[in-house]
């Protein structure tokens, strides 16, 4: 089982994934689960995914909801449609990375994407209050997913 | 031929950052051919003022998520020179291992994911997955191993942690290095040989274009220079890195938020092709064989072949990494505390060959060990004037071709330089409204 954070910690709430990993480490829960921060390297994410290993990916997601809103997505063929994403280097975003993994036969049978609506994405400054407040909720969702798996 | 041409590619894709290609021709006369850099400046040099020597490399590695290692190493070298901090041979070897891994990683990423789709007439890497899944998987495997090498030595491939002024806070174990060596020999080398075959099959799609320019890279007496060396120009020879200001001559242009550079001509080129032209004699035999296979010759003046030079260099980096590990293991790894006792407070210059060309950092420290003045000159910024000059020669040569073909050649040209616009400031959108008059 892997929990993978994606996003740029230096761009405000895009660092929510990294903050979630930090919270998991601080609470010292989920022993035996790989915690990996790929930051903005979408290709590293593709390489980390393996069909047989369940994975949870945490990233900021613009969903048109209130900042700090959390959505649990289980990507299927349809929801993996390509779309632009300027959060990532070289124009490769999370949807593209997952689509690439699927086409390479690397997409885990059990994949959960947890999206958190960002409030701010400007350089520096760290997480907004709303997103910071959502971190424990995301950790709980991950703990429940890991528990359900094994 | 009398022709009007307006190309405006806004935010070019498959480059790092935001830039626009703008070409205007009126009645057959080229009025404008330039790469407009439209990103906001980032003021890193001002950010560094007042910061302690412990912080400089941590801050400057954030200039870029792709070249973070290069910025970090260059920053450490500038700080160490300014403060008179000597580093051990082991530290230099570990840093060289990092630089070779980072160059390998970046070159593979560019050749396979950013440049290769053009050679196949595709808009992105996605169609390649359907037609050549084993090639994409190989590229990812190579990139992963190069990243793992960075993780092992620096603690983290992006924004490394363990390299600090005067040395390392942690070094890998002999067993970890031996394991990395095995993976390089058993996985990376065969993957590199397969890469040559792949690139050979694509090389026919590289445009035939030539424009001699000045090529500038580091050069060292005893090795293919990446970590250190004198600044070497194909026009005027070598000078020490402390002469970097007169080997860059930054100046401001209206169409770019990144400064341009020139030395002996109106522009010069840095990067893998410049390194090839200056230092091909220092490459390992496997890399030289790859160059011969791929048709890369000394004195190359086709900027599109920068991608091929990157591929050749990737092979050298893989084998040199093996040689560096052998030296480290042969000498025996020693636990060393970083040397962080300044012997002076002055000015220091760091010059490193990072994937896109020479990177310079210069810092002046006050007596409290805080930065009083900082200057960073980034490879992509040095290449911008050369890209403009290439476009000015290319457009009249291909003007008879359909507008879409011209646009593609311009995009491929800019991509060949593997520009990192966020570093230099960000890159490219092209829009095209060509009409026969």
Describe, in plain words, how this protein is organized in 3D:
- The complex is a heterodimer of chains A (150) and B (437).
- Chain A has four helices and five strands.
- By secondary structure, chain A is an alpha/beta fold.
- Chain A has a single domain (2-149), classed as 3-Layer(aba) Sandwich (Rossmann fold), CATH 3.40.50.1450.
- Chain A has a five-stranded mixed sheet with strand order 2-1-3-5-4, with helices on both faces.
- The radius of gyration of chain A is 14 Å and the shape is globular.
- Chain B has 437 residues and is of the alpha+beta class.
- Chain B has two domains: 5-37, no CATH class; 44-426, Cytochrome-c3 Hydrogenase, chain B (Orthogonal Bundle).
- Chain B contains 13 helices and 14 strands.
- In chain B, the strands form four sheets. In chain B, strands 1, 2, 3, 13 and 14 form a five-stranded antiparallel sheet that branches. Chain B has a four-stranded mixed sheet with strand order 8-7-6-9.
- The N and C termini of chain B lie close together (10 Å).
- Classes of the chains: A alpha/beta (150), B alpha+beta (437).
- The A-B interface holds A 8, 10, 39-41, 43-44, 46-47, 82, 89-92, 96, 99-100, 103-105 and B 13-16, 62, 65-66, 109, 113-114, 125-126, 129-130, 133, 136-137, 140-141, 143-144, 147, 158-159, 422.
């Amino acid at each position: 089982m892997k929990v993978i954070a994606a996003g740029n910690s230096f761009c405000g709430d895009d660092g929510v994934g990294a903050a979630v990993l930090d919270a998991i480490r601080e609470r010292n829960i989920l022993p035996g689960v790989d915690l990996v921060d790929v930051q903005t390297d979408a290709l590293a994410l593709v390489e980390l995914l393996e069909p047989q290993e369940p994975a949870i990916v945490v990233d900021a997601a613009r969903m048109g909801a209130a900042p700090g809103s959390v959505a649990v997505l289980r990507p299927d063929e349809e929801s993996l449609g390509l779309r632009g994403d300027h959060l990532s280097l070289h124009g490769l975003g999370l949807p593209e990375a997952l689509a690439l993994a699927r086409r390479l036969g690397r997409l885990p049978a059990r994949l959960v994407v947890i999206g958190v609506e960002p409030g701010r994405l400007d350089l520096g400054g760290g997480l907004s209050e709303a997103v910071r407040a959502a971190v424990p909720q995301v950790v709980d969702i991950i703990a429940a997913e890991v528990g359900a798996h094994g | 031929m009398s022709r009007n041409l307006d190309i405006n590619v806004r935010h070019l894709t498959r480059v790092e950052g935001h830039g626009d290609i703008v070409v205007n021709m009126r009645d057959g006369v080229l009025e404008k051919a330039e790469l407009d850099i439209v990103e906001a400046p980032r003021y890193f040099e001002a950010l560094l003022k007042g910061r302690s020597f412990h912080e400089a490399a941590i801050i400057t590695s954030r200039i870029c998520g792709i070249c973070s290692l290069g910025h970090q190493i260059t920053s450490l070298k500038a700080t160490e020179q300014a403060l008179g901090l000597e580093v051990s041979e082991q530290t230099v070897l570990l840093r060289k291992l990092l630089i070779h891994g980072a160059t390998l990683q970046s070159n593979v990423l560019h050749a396979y994911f950013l440049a290769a789709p053009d050679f196949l007439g595709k808009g992105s890497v996605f169609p390649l997955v359907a037609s050549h899944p084993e090639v994409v998987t190989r590229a990812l495997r190579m990139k992963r191993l190069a990243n793992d090498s960075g993780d092992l030595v620096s603690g983290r491939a992006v924004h490394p942690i363990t390299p600090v002024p005067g040395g390392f806070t942690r070094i890998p174990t002999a067993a970890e290095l031996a394991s990395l060596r095995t993976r390089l020999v058993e996985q990376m080398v065969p993957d590199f040989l397969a890469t040559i075959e792949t690139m050979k099959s694509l090389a026919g799609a590289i445009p035939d274009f030539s424009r001699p320019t000045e090529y500038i890279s580091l050069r060292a007496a005893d090795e293919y220079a990446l970590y250190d060396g004198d600044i070497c120009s194909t026009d005027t020879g070598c000078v020490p890195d402390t002469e970097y200001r007169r080997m860059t001559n930054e100046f401001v242009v209206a169409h770019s938020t990144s400064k341009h550079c020139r030395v002996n001509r109106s522009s010069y080129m840095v990067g893998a092709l410049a390194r090839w032209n200056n230092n091909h004699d220092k490459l390992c035999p496997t890399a030289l064989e790859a160059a011969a296979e791929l048709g890369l010759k000394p004195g190359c003046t086709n900027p599109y072949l920068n991608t091929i030079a990157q591929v050749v260099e990737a092979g050298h980096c893989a084998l040199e990494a093996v040689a560096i590990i052998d030296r480290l293991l042969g000498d025996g790894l020693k636990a060393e505390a970083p040397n962080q006792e300044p012997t002076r407070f002055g000015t220091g210059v760091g010059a490193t060959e990072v994937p896109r060309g020479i990177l310079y950092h210069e810092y002046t420290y006050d007596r409290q060990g805080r930065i009083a003045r900082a200057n960073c000159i980034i490879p992509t910024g040095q290449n911008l004037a050369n890209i403009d000059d290439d476009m000015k020669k290319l457009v009249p040569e291909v003007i008879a071709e359909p507008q879409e073909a011209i646009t593609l050649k311009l995009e491929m040209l800019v991509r060949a330089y593997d520009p990192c616009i966020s570093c230099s400031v960000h890159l490219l959108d092209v829009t095209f409204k060509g009409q026969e008059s």
